[in-house]
Amino acid sequence: MLIEVCDKSALPGGELRLFKIKGREILAVNFDGKVFCLDGRCTHAGAPLAEGRLQEDVLTCPWHYSQFIITDGSVLRGPADTPLKTYRVEEKENKVFIDL
């Protein structure tokens, strides 16, 4: 089921944006013109990833500095050992949708 997240214009390149959708915290990132959506909480201790740091395609958790690759949610560096859940994204008429 596709659910609208936002207009793509609300996602400036390289910035982290948090959306609450159907009881979930979804982190959206516009990286090199493509939008990626992931769970908004770190899999290690539940830190709010929207407060983290993004450098290229690497997201660093603000609490314990776990690092994740935003394109697929994989763990680059712990202490987290569980990848972030990612969501399939579709862009239509400058709007961003995710498949929940």
CATH topology: Rieske Iron-sulfur Protein
The CATH homologous superfamily is called: Rieske [2Fe-2S] iron-sulphur domain
Number of helices: 0
Q: Which architecture name does CATH use?
A: 3-layer Sandwich
Structural domains: how many:
1
As laid out across the biggest beta sheet, the strand order is 2-3-4-9
Task: Tell me roughly what share of residues is in helical segments.
Answer: under 10%
What is the mean predicted local confidence, pLDDT?
Answer: 96
What would you call the quaternary organization? single chain
For the secondary structure, the number of strands is 11
Report how far the terminal alpha carbons are from each other. Answer: 6 Å
CATH top-level class: Mainly Beta
- Tertiary shape: globular
State which percent range the strand residues make up.
Answer: over 45%
Spell out the helices and strands N to C.
Answer: EEEEEEEEEEE
Note poorly predicted spans. Answer: none
Class inferred from helices and paired strands: mainly beta
Largest sheet entry = 4 strands, antiparallel
Rg estimate, integer Å: 13 Å
Describe the structure.
The chain is mainly β and 100 residues long. The chain has one domain (2-99): Rieske Iron-sulfur Protein, CATH 2.102.10.10. It has no helices and eleven strands. The protein has strands spanning 2-7, 16-21, 24-31, 34-39, 53-55, 58-60, 67-69, 75-77, 86-87, 89-92, 95-99. The strands form three sheets. It has a four-stranded antiparallel beta sheet, with no helix packed on it. A four-stranded antiparallel beta sheet has the order 5-6-7-8, with no helix packed on it. It is globular and about 40 Å long. The mean pLDDT is 96.
